[in-house]
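Q: For a teaching session next week I want to show students how multiple molecules come together into a single three-dimensional assembly. I've collected the sequence lines for a complex. Could you give me the predicted structure tokens for the whole thing so I can convert them for display?
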Amino acid sequence: MHEIDIVTLSRLQFALTALYHFLFVPLTLGLSILLAIMETVYVMTGRTIWRDMVKFWGTLFGINFAMGVATGITMEFQFGTNWAYYSHYVGDVFGVPLAIEGLMAFFLEGTFVGLFFFGWDRMSKRAHMIVTWLVAIGSNLSALWILVANAWMQNPVGTIFNPQTMRMEVSSFFDVLFNPVAQAKFVHTVSAGYVTGAMFMLSIGAYYLLRGRHTEIARRSITVAASFGLASALSVVVLGDESGYTAGQNQKMKIAAIESMWETEAAPAPFTLVGIPDSKAQTTHYAVQIPWALGLVATRSLHLPVEGIKDLVSQAEGRIRNGLVAYRALATLQGKAGATLPHEAEPAMRDLGYALLLKGIRPDIENSTDAEIHQAAMSTIPNVGVLFWGFRFMVGLGFYFIALFALAFYLSSWRRLDRKWFLRAALLSLPLPWVAAELGWIVAEYGRQPWIIDGVLPTFLGVSDVPASNVLLSLAGFVLFYSTLAAVDLYLMIKYVRMGPDAPKPNAILHVPARAD
Amino acid sequence: MELFDYTMLRLIWWALLGILLIAFAIMDGFDFGIAMLQPYVARNDVERRVLLNVIGPVWEGNQVWFILGGGAIFAAWPMLYAVSFSGFYLAMFLILLALIVRPVAIAFRGKVDNERWRRIWDWSFVVSGFVPSLIFGVAFGNLLLGVPFHFDQTLRLTYEGNLFGLLNPFALLCGLISLLMLAMQGGTFLALKSEEPIAGRAVKATSVAAIAYILLFTIAGVWIAHSIKGYVIDAPAISDGPSNPLLKTVTRADGAWLANYASHPWTVLAPALAYIGALGTLVFARKRAALLAFAASSLTIAGTICTAGFSLFPFLMPSSSNPQSSLTVWDASSSPTTLFIMLVAAIIFVPIIIAYTSWVFHVMRGPVTAEQIETGSHNLY
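A: Of course. Below is the structure for the complete assembly, covering every listed component.
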């Protein structure tokens, strides 16, 4: 019970701090590129309204950026503080993309963002434009490396267990780097960021048009946002499909749970549009299905079956038994320097992680009963209801974004941005990209459970052995601290949006009488 | 791969760990130092804004040394990352809170024209300078004393101490040394980047910090020599074996932390540099040679961190409760493949980082004046 508490608390803290961090990341990703695009228009045309736009959206970018940096620090260190065994077990692999992210991306972004704000009068127009592009490139490269790290948790390629050090080690860095999941995730995630940035400009632009304020800047902002947003929204959905395909290859359980598909379907499998998943009865009630669709997305074929949850559970049972062979072989080595695994145990090593699932049930897992092995296999089913609905809302929002940006594109191209109903819809849609992005992470990470590294290490084994009271304290601290900061951030955002582009300089001088020296 | 054997890679990454820490303390150190000195050197709104605009264009880049330090320790010394951050859990949490509030305090302070609002962020800023400076030093002090932790056979870690255990007299002394060192760094940078009366106050603060530093650094040295037991790996220490701390045995011995200075006399350069740097800081700051004072203060930082590193070597984090579990350079690293990949990445990117960071400092050269703040040009905060 004591241990369960630490696991639950640590997971809760990670989920909250990660979801909170990702409130700021997508806007940074999208808005940095949009700022660079607008500044390029300024440099090419020389029209100062475009510079004013960069400065206005730049102020909002700055408020958001500070929050993104502040909350990102937690992420870099939380693996060590709360997931010490995970850090030891996979640091040899997982630490590398994080470190390279710092070297290649965050340094670029962090160093040049200062110049973006402070450098306007200190360098040529062209040089400043390059600085803005470097900030945008830095933040996007940052996403690349973080997603290489995350993709490895979903699809742990290029690594091998070393019994002497009791951890996973890199066998092919090339495979880790060019993990197909990483590429699909990267494009999907940055595109989602671009949609967020575009929606931010579209909604706030619509707000100004509704109020009849700053119409010159608002119209131009909407035009930029509409075309950029449309391209990005299309890319999110197409690349989401690519994610689905890569997940179909290596996370069959996640796909089956998202589809609430209990039985293996004959090829080509249908896609369940809606229905009511029932984990107890292991079925989906009132399912409305589109023939062939899932088979096409998940296998890119008409003849390959998509495996259902029940079949995947019985496969997991087999892998647990196989993993126990590896575990027993490993136990004989412990404490002996230079000892190597017997040859016949090596093929079983790829299932070692499955045997470790039993550690959640009993410590001496080599004595597990059949019932316990079945129980461990059943634990490989993630929360079907959350995945099923989370995925459907996310995809629904994706299609809505395509429609909204297409409409915005049409209206702005034909100079008909005076349609009140459209402007209101655009304003009200402001929070939706954030909802979609958070749902996306919930589907991706909650759907990875019970694994912290898919098939390699169960989540509950990854935690630090710190007192639960400490984690409770830090969790409470984060909730309190982050809530306060969220209120301050929203207050400032709304204040600066209301003031609009001709706001007085933010640093209006306060006339506080100087204390005598 | 044949170019570097495992021993060599580990030594290189031990040196790079030191270089990263030194770069972080030199660069972000002046941001922390300026934050700590704020109540003394800046006495009205304009002066406080001078401070924020001095660090404004560069602190975000400086902070990346810390993030990179975290990533590099994770990749190159995963066990050190796991043991130190989970072991020092609440101390680390305090550092995180300070580092979370700092960007917000800097960026948000000027955004509302209200005295109370600005007071709150000013104090948050000051605290965000003190807390990490103190805790980083306290952590180093505890490394020299040894920390209570052990591993089981699956290398799962159990930490036996708590936050109050960290706050012992010797560690607090190290915390103060760190605080003074970064105050010198902040004071010298501020003297370089501001005008009277701020620069004059910064020089005064720097002088006090330098004298106190020399005093406390000496006390810490005597303390280590006389009453702190060091750790020794029982021979033979295998430098290219697998990274498994349990494959060795360790004993505690009097004076072990000074053994490296006896066997490799050149290492005495580290404490010597710390003293020379602090004296130089004092002399140059008083002569108003601001750039030289900043360089001397940076030298103090390098000397101090190297002193700790040389004393501990080959230990990274000794265990007081189960010395066998101690993390050393020879048994807490990543695999040779990972160390090599990371080395290649560092060789490619660190020179590029240094180049563009220098360019940014060049573009933003020259002092921030009260006049600039009042006319609202060239500044943001």
